[in-house]
Design a protein that fits this description.
Layout: H1 2-15, H2 17-55, E1 59-65, E2 72-81, E3 84-90, H3 105-113, E4 118-133, E5 136-145, H4 147-153, E6 160-161, E7 173-177, H5 178-184, E8 191-195, E9 201-210, H6 215-220, E10 221-225, H7 226-232, E11 241-246, H8 252-263, E12 265-269, H9 270-273, H10 275-313, H11 315-323, H12 328-363, H13 384-400, H14 402-409, H15 413-421
Parallel strand pairs: 5-10, 7-9
Antiparallel strand pairs: 1-11, 1-12, 2-3, 4-5, 4-8, 4-11, 6-9, 7-10, 8-9
Helix pairs in contact: 1-12, 2-10, 2-12, 2-13, 10-13, 10-14, 11-15, 12-13, 12-14
Length: 422
């Protein structure tokens, strides 16, 4: 019986090939658009996540304390402060304003590295400085690092271009962002002067271009040794934060909370640091999904309209099939099968077309500048990009056939034959 129903469904589709072609094309267009846009949107999101998890710390412990633990001591007898008896009291009150620097960063680094899930930690100093090159003066974001320790957290060296030296061997060297060098015209190997807020000046040699792929970082970053940044900013032996690398990037938020409880300092995961960007991505994905689903809904109406027309045109055939022994359930299955076949054919045509379009798009050079520096479009090629939209397209086609199938199943063969006789 199933073979007979499939044969009849295929014959109906072939008989009205113009209408079938339009409905198949609608499904194909909807599935293709869903696959292509999902590949583009998720590819950009994935590229952004890769960029920020490799060019920025997974967790950053800042110098802002969450609480100020008082130094306590136990007394041998009850003491009163006003009307409240206490066994302990603070030797000194908490600071009136949060401290922005880590004075004991070496001890904190050793403490953090013992936490489960932490792969490495390194101190860093961040601040603003003036860069002077000839008559050119620009503000830069100073980033002081301990080169060897920093490599275990964020591999700075892998983002260097045209390098002529290394900060580990050249004390008064610096790396400047690729975009910054491009805009200012400063060549690698040039000597620049860095001026701190208090007027401290240090002569540095540009050792390489730094290109992380994140535009915000590549525009104004000036990377120097930790001690150089401390001298320029007059920090002494202090750091502004500790960069942390974790074993599982998706556990960064939980590990940040653990580090806060352990150290008492504010810790930010990469998810929190880039929450605004991810909110923008989520809104963009929602809008795209709604537009693509609207395309499939239009295709569903086309399928339903085509099947309703078929039901109205094939009333006599439906009466004959019922007279030959087909049940109402068989008739309903027949028309649902027609709608499902339309979706299957459209999905099968859309998958290779989407694959070719995604491959072509991934080779296309990017024109213009944005949040990230891209040479070509970052397209995602996960299998789910193809089978999930195809499944949705087939399901929508089957659902669209439900009403025409129900209408056909309700026809009474006696009434159909009587109407034909009249």
């Amino acid at each position: 019986m199933r073979t007979v129903l499939l044969f009849i469904a295929l014959r109906h589709l072939r008989k009205r090939w113009r209408t079938s072609s339009l409905t198949v094309g609608s499904v194909m267009l909807g599935v293709f658009a869903m696959s292509f846009m999902a590949s583009l949107m998720l590819g950009l999101r994935s590229k952004f996540m890769d960029s920020i998890t490799t060019a920025a710390p997974h967790v950053e412990v800042t110098g802002k304390p969450l609480w100020a633990p008082p130094r306590l001591f136990a007394t041998s007898s009850l003491e009163r402060e006003g009307d409240l008896p206490t066994l302990v009291r603070p030797l000194r009150p908490p600071p009136s304003r949060p401290e922005k620097r880590l004075k004991t960063y070496r001890q904190l680094v050793r403490l953090i590295e013992r936490v489960s899930g932490v792969a490495a930690a390194a101190p860093q100093v961040r601040g603003k400085a003036l860069l002077v090159y000839g008559s050119l003066t620009r503000t830069v974001n100073l980033w002081g690092i301990a080169p060897d320790a920093q490599e275990r957290v964020i591999s700075v060296r892998q983002y260097l271009r045209d390098a002529i030296g290394d900060l580990a061997q050249v004390p008064n060297g610096c790396y400047l962002g690729k975009e910054f060098l491009r805009r200012t015209g400063i060549p690698v190997g040039a000597k620049v002067t860095l001026i701190g807020p208090n007027g401290t000046q240090i002569r540095c040699r540009v050792l390489a271009r730094y290109w992380s792929g994140v535009r915000e970082t590549d525009e104004l970053t000036c990377i120097v040794r930790l001690t150089t940044a401390q001298t320029l900013l007059n920090f002494g032996d202090e750091a502004t934060s500790i960069a942390v690398r974790v074993s599982d990037v998706y556990r960064a938020f939980d590990i940040a909370r653990t580090l806060e409880r352990l150290t008492g300092y504010q810790a930010r995961s990469w998810q929190e640091a880039n929450a605004n960007y991810f909110a923008l991505f989520n809104l963009q994905d929602l809008i795209t999904a709604l537009l693509l689903m609207a395309t499939l809904v239009v295709a569903a109406f086309g399928i339903a309209n085509g099947l309703i027309t078929t039901v109205l045109q094939k009333q006599r055939d439906i009466g004959i099939l019922k007279a030959l022994g087909l049940t109402a359930w068989d008739i309903a299955i027949l028309f649902v099968l027609e709608g499902t076949l339309t979706g299957v054919i459209g999905a099968l045509l859309a998958v290779p077309l989407a694959a070719k379009a995604i491959d072509a798009m991934s080779r296309m050079p990017v024109v213009g500048e944005g949040l990230m520096t891209l040479e070509t479009f970052a397209m995602l090629r996960h299998p789910a990009i193809y089978w999930l939209p195809a499944t949705i397209g087939i399901a929508v086609s089957a659902i669209a056939a439900f009403f025409p199938a129900r209408m056909a199943a309700r026809y009474d063969p006696v009434e159909i034959v009587r109407s034909a006789a009249q």
